[in-house]
Amino acid sequence: MANPMARVEQIPSPGESDHGLALDADGLRKLIDDFRESALFSIVATAALTGARRNEILALQWIDFDPIKKTLRIERALEETKAGLSFKPPKTKRGTRTITIDDDLVALLVAEREKHLRIVAGVSESAAVDLSLVRLPEGALVFPSPAGARFDITRPRDPHAVTRGFVKRARKLGFKGMRFHDLRGSHETALLDAGVPVRVVAERCGHDPAVLLRNYAKRTRKADASAAAVIGSLSKGILG
């Protein structure tokens, strides 16, 4: 069985704020698939496929999701205070953004919303009902807290519980040392490896381009091999 961490590069960069791990596109895809049977699957998939921060994802409301335009709107983040969990605007103007998402993530979120509509309507998954007639309450969260005997779609999920659950399962799957935040860095790395311009990646993830390059752009082995291949093609006939 292949070691999933073989697709990881750790960048020890003194003086930089991020010292995490970066999976390449294949490793990221495997991680998502390995979480398929986990209660965190939808959250992990959203993080890996959007590059959004954990507390931005946990603050997403259903009004932020547009399945027709295939977008997620980031307008707030979860904040931990002495009084408990609350919502706040993103740290910078760049943090407020609209992220285009792929068809698979759209379908995943549509299915998640249908579950919430059925819970609010009090009908089973197999019951034939017109869900377009059901209305979610104001402030309904995409990933609310599952705790408690009564499901409250407006109650935020504990971010630390999400992190602990992710790390525990990732370690069990062989992704040792992987943090939830590394999904963001891996997303950005995969886009940069694929040749997506730095400016586009930065806008998608709410970064200043310089910050992206300094703290989040990690060189994977795959990217390094690709670079070597390009240089090799340039050197043909020169060094031979």
List the helices and strands and how they pair.
Elements: E1 8-10, E2 21-23, H1 25-34, H2 41-50, H3 54-57, E3 65-66, E4 71-74, E5 77-81, E6 84-88, E7 97-100, H4 103-121, H5 159-172, H6 182-193, H7 198-205, H8 209-216, H9 221-235
Antiparallel strand pairs: 1-2, 3-4, 4-7, 5-6
Helix pairs in contact: 2-4, 2-6, 6-7
Entry keywords:
alpha+beta; 240 residues; 11% strand; hpI Integrase, Chain A
Describe the structure.
By secondary structure, the protein is an alpha+beta fold. The model is unreliable at 7-17 (pLDDT under 50). The protein has nine helices and seven strands, in the order ββαααβββββαααααα. 42% of the residues lie in helices and 11% in strands. The two termini are 39 Å apart. The chain has one domain (17-214): Orthogonal Bundle (hpI Integrase, Chain A), CATH 1.10.443.10. α2 crosses α6 (182-193). It has a three-stranded antiparallel beta sheet with strand order 3-4-7. A two-stranded antiparallel sheet has the order 1-2.
Name given to the CATH architecture: Orthogonal Bundle
Strand order of the largest sheet: 3-4-7
Listing every helix as H and every strand as E from the N terminus to the C terminus, the arrangement reads EEHHHEEEEEHHHHHH
> Which percent range describes the beta-strand content?
5-15%
